[in-house]
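UDP-N-acetylmuramoylalanine--D-glutamate ligase
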Amino acid sequence: MNENKNIVILGAGESGVGAAYLAQQQGYDVFVSDFGAIADKYKQQLKDWDIRFEEKQHTEAEILKAVEVIKSPGIPEKAPIVKKLREKGIPVISEIEFAGRYTNAKIIGITGSNGKTTTTSLTYFILKNAGLNVGLAGNIGNSFAYQVATEKFDTYVLELSSFMLDDMYKFKVDIAVLLNITPDHLDRYEYKMENYAASKFRITRNQTANDVFIYCADDEESLKGMEGKSFNAQLLPFSIQKEITPGAYLQGEKLIIQTNQQPFEMNIKELALQGKHNIYNSMASGIVARVLDLRNETIRESMAQFKNIEHRLEFVAKISGISFINDSKATNVNSTWYALESMTSEVVLILGGVDKGNDYNMLRDLVKRKVKAIVCLGKDNKRIHEAFEDDVEVIVNTASAQEAATVAYHLAAKGDTVLLSPACASFDLFKNYEDRGRQFKDAVKEL
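Structure:
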């Protein structure tokens, strides 16, 4: 028996610090190492728990002693320390994989390039309203590992990014949801769409005939990824283009979910979340609720009352008849496409940031039809200019949220919408997309 109880956590953010606490609770000798600076809040927690840590460096001698390493999702495979661990054959897993060993709760896992956070939040909201003892974790809320260590939830709703799925091996999701697959984070996947898609499908690993896999039957990349694969779980697709049973579909303006039980029906005008993409999100959450045999009335009430998350098509204010919308969470082109698709007025679009190899072509048609001006918010806006210079008359560069909001306000007219939906990561000018969204909201309130 291996008596080595050394476990190393790489990265001291929400997931890393939560994993450290759970590992300590399970009797491991824990060491946390972060190549960057650790936020004061997390540093204080590690000190309070008497967990050893280092920041701004990786001490190899210490890290390579580990029996296992829990890696934060943001650390890429090409990081030198990860390569060394792989060479030595030391297992590298995710916080989700580790925490899953210590809970018997039912797991609902939700992934996809777009709509994950909204669908995860809506699913959690429905389950909580139905009286379930449910936790919310993954890419959202408090770390899964920390909740496993401190709570006794019967069910978890987890938002799972491709980075989290990459380091999961034995973890099993009881109800898996794949919303869609569109190009995102391709820099982490050798710029190959099939690698990224394969990562998303890891959510179905280890599923049995007692489990469920929910997916979008209208999403080409999802269907392509399913070709030639066999699935043990029950398949429940959803579509707004065709009638599907069992599964979810539209009949006129009626959303219908038909699983093994009585059908669920709801007029799409009554949904709290409007727009085509949100019909998909509501279908996915609704199927989860029906699989769990929740009452139709509870599902209907929750879907009508749900309030969307911060930074996702969030209404900020109306000033001089101009609506300001914060969609800072749109860090890829597809998210921005969804945002534009749901707009019903002329738009001044705030775009830009760290470009992750974006293909802006898919936005061109919507930009031509709906966008009167583009305000760039980023250090390098060359590709945005190149993509849209023939489609809009005005493209302006700005270097702060305040400047972007002010310029957009002056370019907009009464009845227009100023939409912050950047299609890019935020790290050139901001700490993260939340910081970008909050600075934008503050700037709007000062207009």
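The longest strand covers residues 371-377.
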